[in-house]
Amino acid sequence: MKKQTVMAAAFAGILCSLSIQGTASGSVVVDRVVAVVNDDIITMSDLQREAALRKSDARPDERVVLEDMIDRRLQMAAAKRAGMDVSDKELADALADIMKRNHLDAKQFEAALAKEGLTLEQYRTELREQITLSRTFNKFVRTGLAIDEAEARSFYQNNQKAYSLPEEFRVRQIYLPLPDKATPAKAAAVKEKARIVLERAKKGEDFIKLVREVSEGVTAKQDGDLGFMQRGQALAEIEEAVATLKPGEIAGPVKFADGYNVLRLEEVRTPVMPFEKVRDEITKTLYEQKMENTYRSWLQTLRSDSHIENRL
After folding, report:
1. Conformation bin of residue 83: beta by default, left when phi > 0, alpha when psi is -120 to 50
2. What does the DSSP assignment read for 212-281?
3. How far apart are CA 200 and CA 255, in angstroms?
4. Dist CA 42 CA 191 (whole Å)
5. Are 178 and 241 members of one domain?
6. Considering its fold, how many domains does the chain have in total?
């Protein structure tokens, strides 16, 4: 069954370009009726011409093409019953708009159509049908469709993984700097001090109290809290030290260029984008889903209320 996204694309295409082809030259068709739709028929030549229009399909499945044609005939019949015919003036205005946007006068327009294997009258017929189908779709499918806040929030809550950001971790440090131009002996002394602090922390001493007692540098004023960092974006020494830790576990002494650290992994989280930032995206997704479902349901109703014979 033809999806609305495909139908909409086809409608947009016919209004914005001159891309309709005629039936492939040189083809020979022994015509016969391949489908009956109420009082209308679709012939093999109709089907072959429709298949030839589908440039993107190397070998379109004729059965699929025929089902699409049946759906279109049903929609055109629904439009006629609803009095949604396109007037000659409306069609003329649409053609004038196409020529204006393509910077073509009437002769250039007909010449462009001829290169595509179409006469002006054939193009008018195609365009009239596309405008009618668009109107019919708007009336029977789009009308009344809306997504409220509750629907969007429910979808957000049930699909949190889809809006997850990269994993983050938060670390607290006890920082022991190396003195300028430290000798090997002084460096070893700093490392030993860090080792002793590590042992005290592992034995259960309050880590924040140790930070306040021992740590130096700017982060000491923040109780050693380095804040949240994304995996893969923190310093390599930190990433490696906490890679296998669980929250609350401690690592060290960790050598940095300017000193030694004792690190405690505080927290790991996978943040989720706020609803406000994804509301429009969710609303669009839900609207398209609801529109597709409504379209399919409407087509099914049209088929159920009609006499259809597929003879292919």
Report:
1. left
2. HHH--SGGGGGTTEEEEEETTTS-HHHHHHHTT--TT-EEEEEEETTEEEEEEEEEEE--B--HHHHHHH
3. 18
4. 87
5. yes
6. 2
Q: How far apart are CA 46 and CA 42, in angstroms?
A: 6
Write the CB contacts of 284 (distance below 8 Å, at least 6 apart in sequence).
none
Q: In this structure, are 50 and 108 located in the same domain?
A: yes
Residue 157 lies in a domain: no
Q: Is residue 265 part of a domain?
A: yes
* Cα–Cα distance, 34 to 309 (Å, whole number): 8
Q: Are residues 43 and 106 in the same domain?
A: yes
Longest dimension (CA), the chain: 101
Range of the domain at 219: 168-269
- Residue 64 sits in a domain whose CATH number is 1.10.4030.10
Contact 197, 213 (CB under 8 A): no
Is residue 49 exposed (0-12), middle (13-18) or buried (19+ Cβ within 10 Å)? middle
Contact 74, 299 (CB under 8 A): yes
Report the CATH number that the domain containing residue 223 is assigned in CATH: 3.10.50.40
- Residue-wise pLDDT for 183-238, tens only, equals 889 999 999 999 999 999 999 999 999 999 999 988 888 999 999 999 888 898 99
* 22 CB-near residues (< 8 Å, 6+ apart): 49, 52, 116, 117, 118, 122
pTM of the model: 0.65
Asked, for residue 41, whether it belongs to a domain, the answer is yes
